[in-house]
Amino acid sequence: MNNIRVSLLVFFFSFSLQAAEIRGTVRNATGAPLQGASVSIDARRTTTDASGAFALEAADGAYDLRVSHPAFESVTRRTKAGETVTIELTPSFADSIVVAGIRAEAETPVTRTDVTHEEIEAQYHGQDIPLLLRDTPSVQAWAESGVGSSGYSYITLRGISPTRINFTLDGVPLSDSEDMGAYFVDFPDLARSLESVQIQRGVGTSTVGTAAFGGSVNLESINLAPEQRIEAVLGGGSFGNRQASVGYHSGALAGGLQLYTRVSFLESDGFRDNSATKQRNVFFSAAKTLGEGQLKLTGFSGYERQQLSFYATDLTTLENDLRANPLRPEENDSFGYDLAQLQYVRPMGSDADMTASVYYQRGYGWYRLYDFGTDDLRQYGLDGMLLGSLVTYSKTSGNLKTSYGVHVNHFKRDHTRDDVTAATRDYANYGLKSEANAFAKVSYDLAKFHLYGDAQIRHARFDYHGEADIPAIDWTFFNPKIGARYELTSRSSVYASAGLATREPTRNDMFLGEDNPSVAHDLHAVRPERVLDFELGVNHRTASLELAANLYAMEFRNEIASTGELSEIGLLLRRNVDRSYRRGIELEATWQAAPALRLLTNANFSRNRIDEWTQFYDVYDDGGNWIDSTPRTYENVHPLLTPEVLVSQAVEWSPAARLSVGAAGRYVGRAYLDNTNDEALVTPSYWIADARAAVRVTDWAHVTLQVNNLFDRERVFASGYSYVFMNEDATGARSLSGTPYYYPQATRHAVLLLEVSF
């Protein structure tokens, strides 16, 4: 209770300082106002309203005012408290593919959160992208190894699993085509090369790759700096955390050429036993002006080697050893991941532009597991390659704006298994997945109304080649969206939208968890899932306060829901349920309480149900022998691992120009480990707090201390699963028994970073 009282005092405490304001307007090259531009000085931030206006409280003195907006070059200007300025942003060719293709603009009637470059810089300390986004609305994130800088990490949106969230980088899909997972351990230190992140919750706008089912996470690569700059980071911390990174901006070179590259090294021992990770990455970007257009090459090459920790630990073991990992040191993996995209962007007069891009991805490597209960070590190999192309065209005619896009790609991945000891191959198979989609988006401004429509048609085909003779399968989907935003005032607006998304099952769904199918599975047995998403929201913005609230209702048919079980290679097993829903309210607030004090709050309160769930139980006799499998049906159940309360509260304080401190606390409600809702099989609710302090030692050196799980809480079980079975005694009477398994998150741990820039 004392911790809660302290948190409340911090939340309601503000400074009674006499402060001036920095006011201004942000416009584009034609003089039109830009809504939604991010404006910041030190740790204070705001966004522009519908008229492009902004105001920031500031004590007397001079400041570096930074203004950024998707699809425009960022601007930094020296200004003073009390000044009124006009900022003009020029288009950034390379970013227009993101805006025209998949991102929602400020007036688009969708539910979204934008994370700016400044926020990424302030929050990032080496953790994977899911953990970086953990304090945004309706997000729950966790790491298998217990710390976000080691091993695989996962993110859910509104309780919906990451395989049903669309991830892109500059329009390129990051989720693999077969099983739709994005493995951020393969993209080490990517956050240091990002300009911004947009999270769309619900079906959002049309995108590339599989349809956004729970939401989409759109990453934007870093803007190329106009001046030459070198950035270096050196850090270390708890559980063997070690990291080093060097980035280089060439600035504007002769012939309209600009370059950027970053080399990164990260290592960690992990919190759980035998969960160490070594990661390497090279990120690169180059742009060259060609007449009125621009050619840009962006990509990275990452590599990781780690000990595996994807099995959870039973509760009895955790009570004696919180760091226990059931996997052995020899059970490890090694993967590389390469991505490259070549974009050409060209304005077509003053009111239109087009983009064309081609991209290449390859993810390759292996992981090793012992056969269950034996000392036979098997190596599972994966080698997948994705080739694709995207073309978009956007045009503005008065109050009407239209965007069109066509996207095609082709994916092939080889699956193998080898006996490591005998040096023999057990099997080899491969899958082919191709898709093509086209979208059209239209928006129209009518007085205070902004009307929006969006439609996508998508075709996908999966073809398997292996020992089992399994015919190919095709799917064709139509995904429409419609919405409207109404400007109540220049500072307030309301919006409503409705959208339909349908998507196919994954390879793992269709093969019931088998990596090498033993029978000719009927690929039509698992039906595509569909969601009808309704969103109703309000936004309000003043010089010191930003508020957003929305109601959502996501109504599912044939949802491919997790069963709470794992396949023999650690993948979640799922199957169709007829009807289910997720409904709730999301709240987001940012208050600049004083020039030096900023408070941030977000919350999600939801009601989530599956109408009917059938659980299949293994039955064992008194001697522990399996004798049967029996079903039992449950009605109106909570979907597993979907907490109905998520609350995050953060405070940022900048008492001096060179010092900033902050703290963030989050509360996560309890959730069930399976869909039977057994009260003994839950992840308990928990509250956790992190803190950080950053000092600018000189104009070119910056030191940051990040402390996670500040109060050293031990029972932070963010995820897990269970095994429930039936016992049959000598009389034939049957009773249920179950074991919960959890992924423990790390106790108190810290990271210290030294960053230099010159």
Question: Which characteristics define this entry?
Answer:
758 residues; mainly beta; 22-stranded antiparallel beta barrel; five-stranded mixed beta sheet; 6 helices
Gyration radius, rounded: 26 Å
Structural class: mainly beta
Helix content: under 10%
Main β-sheet, in a few words?
22 strands, antiparallel, barrel
Which of globular, elongated, flat, extended, rod-shaped describes the shape?
Answer: globular
- Give the termini distance in whole angstroms: 46 Å
Number of strands: 42
Low-confidence stretches: 1-18
Q: How would you explain this protein's 3D organization?
A:
By secondary structure, the protein is mainly beta. Helices cover 5% and strands 60% of the residues. It has a 22-stranded antiparallel barrel. The two termini are 46 Å apart. Mean pLDDT is 91; it is low at 1-18.
Concise structural overview:
The chain has 758 residues and is mainly β. It is 5% helix and 60% strand.
Helix and strand layout, with pairings?
Layout: H1 2-12, E1 20-27, E2 38-41, E3 44-47, E4 53-58, E5 62-69, E6 72-80, E7 84-88, H2 96-101, E8 111-115, H3 117-123, H4 129-132, E9 139-143, E10 153-157, E11 165-169, E12 172-173, E13 194-201, E14 215-221, E15 229-237, E16 241-249, E17 257-268, E18 277-290, E19 293-307, E20 313-314, H5 315-320, E21 332-347, E22 352-370, E23 377-397, E24 400-419, E25 424-446, E26 449-465, E27 473-487, E28 492-503, H6 507-510, E29 529-541, E30 545-566, E31 572-594, E32 597-620, E33 626-637, E34 645-656, E35 659-668, E36 671-672, E37 682-683, E38 686-696, E39 701-708, E40 717-728, E41 734-744, E42 749-757
Parallel strand pairs: 1-7, 11-14, 32-40
Antiparallel strand pairs: 1-4, 2-3, 2-5, 5-6, 8-13, 9-10, 11-12, 13-14, 15-16, 15-42, 16-17, 17-18, 18-19, 19-21, 20-41, 21-22, 22-23, 23-24, 24-25, 25-26, 26-27, 27-28, 28-29, 29-30, 30-31, 31-32, 32-33, 32-34, 34-35, 35-38, 36-37, 38-39, 39-42, 40-41
